[in-house]
Amino acid sequence: MTLPPFRIGYVPEHFSTPLYFAQKYFGLSAELIPFPSGTGHMVTSLQSNEIDIGIGLTEGWISALGKQRKEAGFKLVGTYVQTPLCWAISTGAERDLNNVEQLNSKKIGVSRLGSGSHVMGFVLADAQSWLRTPGEPPFEVIPLQTFANLRNAVNDGSADFFLWEHFTSKRYYDNGSIKRIGEIYTPWSSWQIVARHDAGDLRLDDLFGRLDQGIKYFEQHQDEAVQYISTNLDYSTEDARAWLATVRFAEYTKGVEMETVEKTISVLKKAGVLEKEVNIGLLVSSASKK
After folding, report:
1. Residue 185, pLDDT above cutoff 70
2. Which residue from 39, 99, 118, 190 has the highest number of Cβ atoms inside 10 Å of its Cβ?
3. How far apart are CA 11 and CA 58, in angstroms?
4. Which residues, other chains included, contact 147 with Cβ-Cβ below 8 Å and sequence gap of 6+?
């Protein structure tokens, strides 16, 4: 029996370029389904059997898995990006907010509850010593779904600030529609791959092999990568080249570094995102532990 192609959820940003190359040049048989609102939306789509695979942010996956455990319906199976992610902190262009210290007790816009933009708000609060009670943010959380909604909200006052990836945000600083007031880096490798429990090991091995080829092609054809990013995604040529200098993808996507999982859990517990003890073995596929 021929199995249907994988349905792969991904965020349609510059990080998706090797995935595009894997399908274009290396026979990745998959339906690529964009999730512009991010990792939190992919969590619900995995659980409702709308996608089989998700490529998203480490903190979003581990937050969902740490809270839901076996009931999550998926596990970590691979590593996509090795380098940390720079989250830019933004507010409205004309808002009287000019530094991170002013954000305590303000309204934070997030894409969805449990998304990377939500989780990193807790990490920011912990770094700034704003947390009074674990799990209770020192600001009102406003779910807004999309990056466009977040930009609009900080300008109309329905939110005061939000966190989003630096290079995705940069063109909107350049055109004056939002204002950058700070940044925070993830203290872990930034992108991981998850799969539903019924994905199948042999099919996953084929996926990893083709993704590895897409990544290698990306690294060896950076002019083509810049052309794709600047033509098909929301980035200038200059920003695409600047991003290339900062990112390192996994050489081999199969497998998850347990140290990354442990470090992420530790930070999320400290920030109050995860409250109970977490059995790491329930988060990572047994065939994927490094």
Report:
1. yes
2. 39
3. 13
4. 36, 37, 111, 164, 168
pLDDT tens for residues 147-170?
A: 999 999 999 999 999 999 998 899
Which residue from 34, 228, 221 is spatially nearest to 146, judged by alpha carbons?
34
Q: How many CB atoms lie within 10 A of CB 267?
A: 21
- Copy the structure tokens of residue 266: 């530790």
- Residue 174 to residue 232: CA distance in whole angstroms: 19
Q: Which residues of 18-41 are buried (b: 16+ CB within 10 A; e: fewer)?
A: bbbbbbeeeebebebbebebbbbb
d(CA 131, CA 135): 8
The Cα–Cα gap between 235 and 228 comes to: 10
DSSP output for 153-213: HHHHTS-SEEEEEHHHHHHHHHTTSEEEEEEEE-SS--EEEEEETTS-HHHHHHHHHHHHH
Instruction: Specify the pairing of strand 53-57 against strand 6-10.
Output: parallel
Distance CA 281, CA 287 (A): 11
Q: CA–CA separation, 8 vs 14, rounded Å? A: 16
CA 118 to chain centre: 11
40-71 pLDDT, tens digit per residue, is: 889 999 999 999 999 999 988 998 998 876 67
Q: For 208-245, write each residue's pLDDT tens digit.
A: 999 999 999 999 999 999 999 999 987 899 999 999 99
Q: Are strands 30-34 and 6-10 parallel, antiparallel or unpaired?
A: parallel
d(CA 244, CA 40): 26
Coil, strand, or helix at residue 57?
Answer: strand
- Residue 73: phi and psi, rounded to 5, are 85, 5
